[in-house]
Amino acid sequence: MSKIYTHYDYLVIADPVFTGQIKGGLRPEEIVEQFGEIDLVNKTLGRQFIKKGLNVPILQDGSLGLPAGLLQQGDWVTAFIAGDFNKDITSRLIWACENPYVQCLNHPDSRPGVQKQSWTVNWKKVIDKAAATGTCIAINAQPDQQAGLKEDWIKYAIERGAKICIGTNASYLYQFDFISTGVAAARRGWCRKEDILNTRSWKEIESYKQYKQSVLSHHMKDL
C-alpha cells in the first residue's frame, strides 16, 4: 500500500453494484458502509487519497442500478452493461452518456472474465455522444481482459474530443501495476497525455465533471 500511496495522487475504489448478473456486487447498504470506511482511512492518512467510486449497471430501460441520492455521494461514477450478450446496446450506452451522474463508460466492449462474449454496438454513435456530453471512456488495463475498446475506436474517440480513462480493474494490490498495460493500449490508439483524464489532478477532474454538468444543462435548455 505504501508504494501505491507514494506513486499516485489519488486512488478510486469502485466495486460493481449488485445486479442479477453481478452476484458479488455491493448492495446500497454495503456501499454506504464502504464510503464510511473510506472516510476513516482518509482521516488516518490526513488527506483525501481514496475517492469514493461507483461502478453501476445500465439497466435495460437505460436507467442506473442505484438511486440518485446514492449516486450523488460518489466521487467518480462509471456505468457498465451486465449480461444481455449478443444484443444491440447502443441506446443504453448513449442514455448513460446523457445521465448527469455518469462520468465514465466502463468495460464498454466486454465484461471482465467473459471476453469471448460481447455485444452489438454502433461505436461511432456512442463515441460521438460521449464526446458531446463530456463522458469519458475507460480502457481496461487487465492483461487477460484486453477485449475492450479497440485501438481504432480509441483513436476516433480522441479525434472527436472524448477523454479516455485508464483503469486497472484491480482486485489485488499487485494488479495496480497493470496500469502499464493500459498505457500501452492508449499509445496504440495514438493517445497523448492530455487525452487521458486520470493523468490530471483531482481538482482538474472535478472541473471536468462540472463541464459535463454544464454541457447537459445547456442541452436541456435547448430542448
Automatic annotation (TrEMBL):
Name this polypeptide is given: Uncharacterized protein
Natural source organism: Niastella koreensis
Gene3D superfamilies xrefs: Metal-dependent hydrolases
